[in-house]
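EI: anyone free to look at a 278-residue chain?
SC: sure, send it
EI:
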Amino acid sequence: MTFAPPAAQPRSSATVRTGTGTGQHGVSRRRTARPGDGRSDGAAEESTRRCLRRSYARGELARQLVAAPLELRDRLLTALRAADTAFFAEDWQRLRPLLEDHAREVRRRLAARSPADVLSELLPTAVGVGPGERVRLDKLQTDEVKIAPRPLVLVPSARVWPHLTVEHEHASCVTVQYPVPAATPGGQLTLRDLHDRLMALTSPARMELCRHLLGEPITISELAARLGSSEPQVSRALRPLRDAGLVRSTREGKLVRHRLATDVVRRLGHDVLATVAR
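SC: here you go
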């Protein structure tokens, strides 16, 4: 399923592929020797030795790949088809409509916006950098990826959360496998959101507010009376909690009542909620 951007946005092309997930392990930038590709037997043996140094299993796989690649391919395809029938066929039938709906929505966005902009919208850990086609990705190590003029291949998955896989070393394309938001438990926080929530709970005064807001919805005037503070003081202390999503507010006529979002606090960890509740 391929999308080519309109002429008004010729910066890069994008492909959206649906699937339950892919795995890439032990990828090297160096091309592995293959029989008949003009490389010497010595190069193939060296490639096998490099794999063996990493682990015996990799060394054996490399030996079989060099010795009989077609036979190994047939065995691998047979194993994958059997695994699909035994483990994934029913799961895929349930997940496929969700992934296809998501892919259609992504294609719709790509028709109107640049791939870098769409990628920044899809990934809570991605931020567009400057006016060009650069995206900063916040993973274990923060890196910047330049998309244009390479094609962008997007692989939405329902089975990779909370991981994000980005392959951009090769000149041919940029491949991003990411979790579909509808299939993730409670979504995924950005680093900034997590920072704001944790920092909001570092103040003893705000922690005291959280304890009062845990039991029942309460107004600022009622909080001020309980704490012996002024309403402006309580309002200022409450604002960071609301901005971080830790407190929800509901209006009832002229009154606005506030309550701790325990589901949000719980996702920060059991110890955090237990500390607030004690």
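EI: The beta strands are 2-3, 14-16, 126-129, 134-137, 143-146, 152-157, 165-167, 174-179, 247-252, 255-260.
SC: 👍
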